[in-house]
Design brief:
Layout lengths: L15 H4 L5 H9 L9 H13 L1 E4 L7 H12 L4 H6 L11 E4 L4 H7 L7 E4 L10 H13 L4 E5 L2 H5 L3 H15 L3 E5 L8 H13 L4 E3 L11 H18 L4 E3 L7 H14 L12 E3 L2 H14 L12
Parallel strand pairs: 1-2, 1-8, 2-3, 3-4, 4-5, 5-6, 6-7
Helix pairs in contact: 2-11, 3-12, 3-13, 7-9, 9-10, 10-11, 11-12
Bound molecules: glyceraldehyde-3-phosphate.
The site of glyceraldehyde-3-phosphate has 12 residues, from strand 8.
InterPro entries: Aldolase_TIM, DeoC, DeoC/FbaB/LacD_aldolase
Catalytic activity: 2-deoxy-D-ribose 5-phosphate = D-glyceraldehyde 3-phosphate + acetaldehyde
Pathway: Carbohydrate degradation; 2-deoxy-D-ribose 1-phosphate degradation; D-glyceraldehyde 3-phosphate and acetaldehyde from 2-deoxy-alpha-D-ribose 1-phosphate: step 2/2
Amino acid sequence: MTSPQYVNVGTDFHADWLEDIRVNKSGVERRVAALGAARPVSGEAQVAFLLKAISCIDLTTLAGDDTPGRVERLCAKARNPVRRDILAAFDMADMGLTTGAVCVYHGMIETAVKALEGTGIPVAAVSTGFPAGLAPMETRIEEIRRSVGAGAAEIDIVVTRAHVLTGNWPALYAEVKAFKEACGAAHMKAILSTGEHGSLTEVARASMVVMMAGADFIKTSTGMEAVNATLPVSLVMARMIRDFADRTGIKVGYKPAGGIRKAAEAVRYLVLMKEELGRDWLEPGLFRFGASALLGDIERQLETLATGIPSAPWRHAMA
Ligand SMILES: O=C[C@H](O)COP(=O)(O)O
């Protein structure tokens, strides 16, 4: 499956774009509670959303005990994410469904690139001292360069949270701009670790700063924080993507990551994207889930919808 690549060339640093940003938490919560209320997703629409969700997953393994064998199994799952008989029940066996990408640590890039050869599925690498992002700057830049050299088409960078927590926006801008330069032609996703920000206003300002610095995607979390992706944070980040597009004409992608494990949750995120940003953000070029276990639950739900009989997790090959 191909999807257009959107590139954010970035802008100069504009302190004035940040000054007016204030987020009303209860307003955000009310909007999230109302998501999709007008038209609940069921039947054929539910199947379409679940297949769409799969095409947008960055199928991820980020464990200290990852092995080439585990990454190869993950890649096999990325190539064929749903059992053929389940897809056939929806007349979708020949749709060429794959996940959006496979996401690994640097040391597993070459294994993943080899296992995905000929599929067009990109390999994403977490970088810049993931997950804390506290390695020396030169080391973080060098890590990006090496990952790109090893074949990663997408680089998920982590920002220095202290810059966000102290409101040092010029420092955050300079750091992310340097990361973007190191990425070259590779697509850069900026992980903000929003669960560690003090408020939704900080999330909004940090989102705006990293987009000015050239982030092609903004991403919630590493998956390692105590609080990872949430719908309120996603609403705030989506609104910033909209503001940035209004100011610059540039479309930036969105990647909620961490703790998204249920098919029903995935549908809520897609509804949020559709209602807040429009259909372009329902494609892998502008939307990804960072998730290690979501695919299994979606496949199970699809089997349940295909057969009318509740499916069990053990029925599905998991990477
Ligand atoms: O970026 C991806 C996350 O690390 C995945 O988190 P998860 O294992 O909670 O799905």
